[in-house]
Amino acid sequence: MRNSPEFELIERVREALREAGVEPAPGVVGIGDDAAVTPGIDGVLVTSIDLCVEGTHFSDAFSDEQVGHKALAGALSDLAAMGARPREAYAGLVAPPGFDAGRAVAIAGGMGRLAATHGVAILGGDLAAGKQLALSITVIGEAPDAGALVTRSGASPGDAVLVSGELGGAAAGLAVISRPELANELSPAVAEALRARQHSPQPRLELGRALAAAGAGAMIDLSDGVRADSEQIASESGVAIELRADRLPIAEGVEAVAAAAGSDPLSLAGAGEDYELLVTFEPDAVEAALEAAAGVGEGLTVIGSVGEGSGVTVAGNGETLGRGFDHLARG
Amino acid sequence: MRNSPEFELIERVREALREAGVEPAPGVVGIGDDAAVTPGIDGVLVTSIDLCVEGTHFSDAFSDEQVGHKALAGALSDLAAMGARPREAYAGLVAPPGFDAGRAVAIAGGMGRLAATHGVAILGGDLAAGKQLALSITVIGEAPDAGALVTRSGASPGDAVLVSGELGGAAAGLAVISRPELANELSPAVAEALRARQHSPQPRLELGRALAAAGAGAMIDLSDGVRADSEQIASESGVAIELRADRLPIAEGVEAVAAAAGSDPLSLAGAGEDYELLVTFEPDAVEAALEAAAGVGEGLTVIGSVGEGSGVTVAGNGETLGRGFDHLARG
């Protein structure tokens, strides 16, 4: 197979990963054998699989580099939400008709640059023909022990609910990508920052580990939106969560996009794909949590509280939080 | 999300996995959190990802149970070819329009029954909408150390080349599935055995570990066919391989299918998807290899030898080995 198209493609992907700064450590068996072989893990393994499918997670307005970045970012964000340290990644690529090695190299480059930033090795993959471009990314991380990790089930009544960074940027970015005339309401820098929130999300890996070490109760990454992801914590922890709409940190430009589109900033702020972390802390530990976040250069905002019961309520005129976004973004 | 369709689907899949005999061990964080958490590994991790896409790896003549089985079998077969012990599996499912929880449960059942047979836990997954059914399976296994594993690069000139089981069954099965009239040439039991080789392949996990322990040089599983997979070993090991067509163990019914289809048994025998193991041993170790295989109830046949040079040659009227199969099976 040394001269076959598949062999050549694998070699070009390996080269693209090396150029991106991702290289297997000595002694590791990486791409090219039946399976990868890596050193054992003293503590616990933390593993997640994440799909990224054309038409569902990205459109043809995304470059192949951006598709590779976003697919890996979504998977790494799950490890961030556990407080785990990422180690290695594996990529399955379903290639549509006409797909070529150049596109595979571009996708590998986008993945590889993000992987190199976080010290993640890309050690294996598979390629198959299909009708549409799809990526399946499995990430393996580690932690000293299970107690060092944060699940979705650790929220307790009385806890504060906090969120990192700012919300709504990814949804406003998708709106701007889908309806370019919306960018007329924004400075070029703000428009580009919103687009980047959509196509190049940054997994909050350092922050996740810092919050885990600071004693987080429950944690999840915001892939489905702050309301939907709060419901996951409420459900898995057996508690109620009250969010305060007036406390939500809204990203710059989101209000302008919402106004131009005749919508509501809260619709965008709750729409998901921001990949920020939603986390609960006992009230006494909130100060330490804010310091831990500041220590890794991230902001954290108290946006609600945990109570007895079940489900999520939104106080402060929050009826539209995360509602009606699909209609807006898809036009 | 407790009442959402996605939550209900995940609960039904968990239940299907429990019924299939697959249950996370105590203390393991399985399906339902951001990531799975499992105990550390003393030796080395062995990891592989494998795609299984509608139209490429299976047709609508496959039941959903068979799709689930075949997808997991293909991934586990890669661990077999390393000599690793499988531990856990993760499944990404791209769901086409109209897909429902019943289909997810059937796929999980097919995966789960195979997983239970081999003591594999299914600990996570992801679901996304797409145009066609596709499964991405990542399997993680373990071994005491890297020296206990068998890569594709360990073949040396003078080694014997052996193959497990019998060849051509999967391709003949695909021909019978695609062209049911071919079954008229076979007893019902043989026709069913061939179909099963196609839709329910059995990964040779015990055999892989036994051959690794017996000192195998290089090993690969037969997914692409004995000629193409020999080329992988030749290429990665920097050697030449000569296969003897007249020594290949051909599965019962393959000759009859080939005759009825106006083809050649070797075309089917080299077509792949048999998921048998192709392995090299020093001549002095062949007897021990045969005993190791017999010890786990498997047969092993010497089918060639390793020499200096590069590439694969086929002696004994082997020109048609693995050639022209696509036309037969799809046509």
Describe this structure in a few short sentences.
Two copies of one chain form a homodimer. By secondary structure, chain A is an alpha+beta fold. Helix content of chain A is 36%, strand content 24%.
Of all protein chain pairs, which has the greatest interface, and how many residues does each chain bring to it?
A-B, 74 and 74 residues
Indicate the low-confidence ranges of chain A by residue numbers: 327-331
Strand percentage of chain A lies at: 15-25%
β-strand number of chain A: 10
Helical segment count of chain A: 11
Distance from N terminus to C terminus of chain A (CA atoms, Å) equals: 47 Å
Inertia-based shape of chain A: globular
Oligomer: homodimer
Description:
The structure is a homodimer of 331-residue chains. Chain A is an alpha+beta fold and 331 residues long. Helices cover 36% and strands 24% of the residues of chain A. The first copy, chain A, is built from eleven helices and ten strands. Chain A has helices at 5-19, 64-80, 101-117, 169-178, 188-199, 205-213, 226-237, 254-260, 265-269, 286-295, 325-330; strands at residues 36-53, 85-95, 121-129, 134-143, 160-164, 219-221, 240-244, 277-281, 300-307, 311-315. In chain A, the strands form two sheets. In chain A, strands 6-8-5-9-7-10 form a six-stranded mixed beta sheet, sandwiched between helices. A four-stranded mixed beta sheet of chain A has the order 1-4-2-3, with helices on one face. In chain A, helix 3 links the parallel strand 2 and strand 3 (121-129). In chain A, helix 2 (64-80) runs parallel beside helix 3, helix 2 packs parallel to helix 6 (205-213) and helix 4 crosses helix 5 (188-199). Chain A is globular, with a radius of gyration of 20 Å. At the A-B interface, strand 1, strand 2, strand 3, strand 4 and strand 6 of A face strand 1, strand 2, strand 3, strand 4 and strand 6 of B.
